[in-house]
Amino acid sequence: MTSHAPALHREHSHVFDDGNPLAERNTRWAVILTASMMVIEIAGGWMFNSMALLADGWHMSSHALALGLSVLAYSAARRLAKDRRFSLGTWKIEVLAGYTSAVLLVLVAALMLFQSVEHLLNPSPIHYNQAIAIGIVGLGVNLACAWLLRGGGHDHHHHGHTHDHHQDLNLRSAYIHVIADAATSVLAIVALFGGKLWGANWLDPLMGIVGAILVAAWAYSLMRDSGKILLDAEMDAPVAEEIRQVLADSGHTLAITDLHLGRIGKGKYQCVLALSSADNALTADRVRQLLAIHDELVHITVEINRPPLAQGVVLFRQNSLA
């Protein structure tokens, strides 16, 4: 038996996430700063023959693209929020942008690695003073962007859990991009000073290799987290066990026959739940009432099946097993 809302109830809204206007505005400023510095670093790297500086410039170009993608994702999610085609809201547009940014980071890491190895095998003279000056300016721009995007979109869970559900992954992807830029800028500056003071020209391409590895690691982390949401691979989330525990402690005789979870907003889940129970006191509204203590569950669908006794179905009172 599937429980439906009374006919007099209006269809409820499917806008589950309110967006992040402040992050959208700050990310737009970060795009402007990053794109400007990108042009300066790439030109300076070619002119002064610094592999670390050139790698940082190309790295920054991908970040400018990724930050622009983040801004577009915020805008699209906001404009399409009430579009009826999106049955569970538009928040995953932002998550998709985060995943795409992670893919771009992987490509940048590969390019950095290739160019750095090539420069390590075929070294050429570097104009250190000019390259160092541009590197320091680039680091300043990176730090300014990081300040704009500080926090990475994290909120704290209302129940005191250590869940990481309230992340703005679109903002996090933008933040990782500028932090990666800052890290590669630091590595470039260290390498250039090492070459200038001690003649260690090999430091420049070596730092490019280190930067590539660092960027790849960050990209993997972002790709893993955003990919899980896009694929609805959320059944290992703590909230799944919390749902089972609430029902086990409910005092009703029941068996969970199906449970599906999917994230539809920052810290917000849809839950599709099927139960088998001969307890007539257990209704869909009662189940929703029990689960209401977890405010991350914002879209709950409940199905309750009443098995005929003739089938010999064995039901059990779950809380008696504790």
TrEMBL record:
Domain spans labelled Cation efflux protein transmembrane: 30-231
Entry superkingdom: Bacteria
Keyword Ion transport: yes
NCBIfam families for this protein: CDF, CDF_efflux_DmeF
PANTHER family in the record: CATION EFFLUX PROTEIN/ ZINC TRANSPORTER (PTHR11562), CATION EFFLUX SYSTEM PROTEIN (PTHR11562:SF40)
Keyword Repeat found: no
InterPro entries given in the database record: Cation_efflux (IPR002524), Cation_efflux_TM (IPR058533), Cation_efflux_TMD_sf (IPR027469), CDF/SLC30A (IPR050681)
Spans through the membrane: 29-48, 60-81, 93-114, 126-149, 174-194, 206-223
Taxonomic classification: Bacteria, Pseudomonadati, Pseudomonadota, Gammaproteobacteria, Enterobacterales
Keywords, ordered alphabetically: Ion transport, Membrane, Transmembrane, Transmembrane helix, Transport, Zinc, Zinc transport
Originating organism: Serratia grimesii
Principal location: membrane
Location in or out of the cell: Membrane
Protein name per UniProt: Cation transporter
Membrane topology: Multi-pass membrane protein
